[in-house]
Amino acid sequence: MNEAKPTKAKWWTRPRSSEDATDGDFELERPRGADAGSTGDGDFELERPAPPRGTEASDDGDYELDRPAADGAGLPPAPPERPRPLHEPDPYSTPPYGEPGPWAPAPPVQHPATTPAHGTATPSPANAPAPHPAPAAPPGAVPDPAFADAPPPAPAPRPAATPPPGPTPDPAFADAPPPVPPAGRPAPHLTHGTTASPVPAPGAAPGGAPTPVPPARQPESGDAGAPQPAAAAAAPEPAPGQSAEPDFDPWGRYDPWTASAATAPLQHSGTPDERRRRTRKALIGGALLIALVSGIAGGVVGVHLERNGGVGTVELPQAGAESAKRAPGSVAALAGRALPSVVTLHVSGSESAGTGTGFVLDDRGHILTNNHVVDPAGDGGEITVTFNSGDTAEATVVGRDSGYDLAVVRVKGVSGLTPMPLGNSDNVRVGDPVVAIGAPFDLAGTVTSGIISAMERPITAGGEEGDASDVSYVDALQTDAPINPGNSGGPLLDSRGRAIGINSAIRSAGGGSAESDGGQSGSIGLGFAIPINQGKRVAEELINTGRASHPVIGITLDMDYSGDGARVGADGSAVTKGGPGAEAGIEPGDVITAVDGQRVHSGEELIVKTRAHRPGDRLELTLERDGRERKISLVLGSSDGG
């Protein structure tokens, strides 16, 4: 098995360091009988061992060493028997049980201090002692195979032998740079001062065991006449007082098989490119992880928001509480002051029923409204008054007049009433702002606003009766404030909250002229109110006497006349004898064209203009007779209204 493979020296053949020897390897002694003329460099054949007794020398083959003497004279004392190893010795010295193989010698490690260049001889100190070679084993001695791998016993100290000049260094360490000896210790001795590099002395293995020595090259079996190696030298024992283990040198030769356990393990950090790649991979992985976590969290939040409509309850922005007070001239302020005085009337009779509005005149319970509102009640109907507070009371008719379309009712047993303040309709001008309050379509407390669109608008309302006894003639205030069925009898307020009219009629798109016609048409912006001055006079008369007086001229008009003006009837009875007209000189067939300088175009307008005054007022009339125009003056008479 060992053919064609150099035979390696066993670990016990390594020389021990003497008491004055330094760390490192030692050169073997040059073989005796070497050619004196050979150079210091190169390999040398070791001396063949002496042939065993009783045999003849042979050039080839193995040789048996001399057996030790029987009495043991001249031999060192036998070492104590060591326990047999648990495993069989490794014949091939395979690591880790054997030495490092020749295919992988341990690399040398040198001190980082400055060292001489390769090939430069290192001078040795003058006082450096030469190493002591180990004594050769007696010839013929054969080691016990059972302890082939066991270390030999330490020999007794002997005089150091000077190695012969010119030993050959180990070729395995020929390229290693020379080590620098530690301070305070002698440098190893060089046998020749050319380019030989000293090797560090072997250290002690853990537990005091010697460190294996790299084997010297053995001659192959085919080399003829090659000298055999000499016996290995044993390391001398330490001197008294000196430690058996050499000083630890961290910069000594590195031996992987005897490295100290305290030595930190070497770690490979990789090249800069590898470190950059690892860093890049770590960053990319972290970014992907963050993106994944963010996506999952966003999905969970989105699902929650979609299912629940938000993180919490929805709260919409809203203005804070403000003062309830409003500007005195605002619609809100006017409505706030007037609503307590406005009432809603529910009228029912044997044939019909209706709803209207009224307002309180005084604290005695008198309420003013339209005649056509209370007309369904007749003589035996019921009238229920509902106040703004929600209280209700029964009412009775005090008086009513169809010519003025006004009526007064009274509630009893009610206290704390708020009368409506009355204004002056003569102070009203076109364009003044107004507010209408009523119960259109039985919606009590409805407030609308607008302006005065026109003044002294002559209108007639009613006429359901065949004899025209229900026709009212009103010199009305026109407004665009929305007035609808149910607003009749309600107040029309000025900018100070005072009543300046009584809402009475509307012009609807269907051609109706008043709410009393039973229609349910809505407002088209044409509403009419009785001036409060006329309403006040009629209400006072109704409350005081139960009847209203009408101013009269004492003539009968031709209502079929289609010309401009109002024509007096042609028969002799058209002018009442002893009446205001007869005394003023009016004759049948005269055409009245103006009243107090205001043009009239029909008989209805003349009636309206006349009823706009009180009985006893003086009027200036312009009339035409036989193509001639003349002016007359008269004092209005009075007649009881029906």
TrEMBL record:
Pfam families documented for this protein: PDZ_2 (PF13180), Trypsin_2 (PF13365)
Keyword Transcription regulation: no
Keywords: Hydrolase, Membrane, Protease, Transmembrane, Transmembrane helix
Biased composition (Pro residues): 92-110, 126-142, 150-185, 199-217
Biased amino acid composition, Low complexity: 112-125, 224-245
PROSITE patterns: PDZ
Basic and acidic residues composition bias: residue spans: 81-90
Coiled coil start-end: none
Classification via SUPFAM superfamilies: PDZ domain-like (SSF50156), Trypsin-like serine proteases (SSF50494)
InterPro entries, per database record: Chloro_Bact_Ser_Proteases (IPR051201), PDZ (IPR001478), PDZ_sf (IPR036034), Peptidase_S1_PA (IPR009003), Peptidase_S1C (IPR001940)
UniProt-annotated stretches for the region Disordered: 1-277
Transmembrane residue ranges: 282-305
Protein name: Trypsin-like peptidase domain-containing protein
The organism's taxonomic lineage, starting at the top: Bacteria, Bacillati, Actinomycetota, Actinomycetes, Kitasatosporales
